[in-house]
């Protein structure tokens, strides 16, 4: 059981005992490894893992400046946008006229993931499409589409004189449905909403679905778009520090059972081990949220069959979040003793909120791909963590697969 020391400045007479709420059992059942066999990434760094790895290695921010005709409507806040993104450039004009930016970013990431699988000889066949599905992370879907629809009901001559073709964009599972329709993914189709934890919730949902045999392969990830309404929300709430920026993009991964992937001859990029999440109370205090995240990390390590000494990289999710940043790092240090190889994806891509967990995974894979481990070496292990103001916390363990 990890003990958290009281924070500096806490009065000794008023501090509660800084211990975890419950002992983490050492006999928790181990998880079966899942493997990542494909990826599609669209971010302020560009397209794919390679430019993301280069950006993180260089230490600079991704493309800056808002995009589109409403660029002048943004508040005085830093943004990280996907440079020059036009959906028609990637998918053509047919069937894309009424799709919003969020859906477009996700569809392009999906296309990149599926093309990569085809190039690697692991394409989704017609026979497999019925057992291949989608698990998408979101919070509200497209804030821009919701805002546009609400505005149109007020400024049009009559409330019902809105463009009906744009209404589907206001439904939070629009992107997951469009992916299934456009690319013939006829298996399980789920959209998971959970604020900052949405990405980790999506990976956990995918693990449960695969373990229960509800699908054989799942595209898992998250997507967020930049918009003036969302940027104003971040600016007005003050949730981000002055150094924080707001970002956008999509990160998707094809995930499948390790044994099944090996039987098909699919080459894994990495292993997804345990993903542990928990809710520690709405408006959770520093103590309960830090202790909760520490408990999640400990459970994830035990169920993954690794120890703190194995962790060489920690991808942090609460970078630049007022209050949460300290809570997250405090919990990680309580379990690991330090924050080894810290990766702060928000420094490069900005705050991507519900897609942050997917981008943290992308950041780890981009770093491993940029500097491949030699064959025969001990596989590298990374930890992905996340906390939210709503009281949710979670941790995911990744393991590298050295190239032969």
Notes on the protein architecture:
The chain is an alpha/beta fold and about 400 residues long. The chain has two domains: about 35-265, Thiolase/Chalcone synthase (Peroxisomal Thiolase, Chain A, domain 1, 3-Layer(aba) Sandwich), CATH 3.40.47.10; about 275-400, Thiolase/Chalcone synthase (Peroxisomal Thiolase, Chain A, domain 1). Helix content is about 35%, strand content about 20%. It contains 13 helices and 13 strands. The protein has helices at about 50-60, 85-90, 100-120, 125-130, 145-155, 175-185, 200-210, 230-235, 260-265, 285-305, 325-335, 345-350, 355-370, and strands spanning about 35-45, 45, 80, 130-140, 190-195, 215-225, 245, 250-255, 270-280, 310-315, 340-345, 380-385, 390-400. Strands 1, 2, 4, 5, 6, 8, 9, 10, 11, 12 and 13 form an eleven-stranded mixed sheet that branches. The longest helix has 19 residues, at about 100-120. It is globular and about 65 Å long.
- End-to-end gap: 38 Å
Indicate the radius of gyration in whole angstroms. Answer: 21 Å
CATH homologous superfamily (4th level) name of the largest domain: Thiolase/Chalcone synthase
Q: How much helix is in the residues?
A: 25-40%
Q: How many discrete domains?
A: 2
CATH architecture of the largest domain: 3-Layer(aba) Sandwich
Biggest sheet overview: 11 strands, mixed
Shape: globular
Could you name the ranges where pLDDT drops below 50 across 5 or more consecutive residues? Answer: 8-23
CATH structural class of the largest domain? Alpha Beta
Strand coverage percent: 15-25%
CATH topology (level 3) name of the largest domain: Peroxisomal Thiolase, Chain A, domain 1
Could you report the average pLDDT, rounded to the nearest whole number?
89
- Give the structural class: alpha/beta
Q: What is the N-to-C succession of helices and strands?
A: EEHEHHHEHHEHEHEEHEHEHEHHEE
The total count of helices amounts to: 13
**In total, how many beta strands?**
13
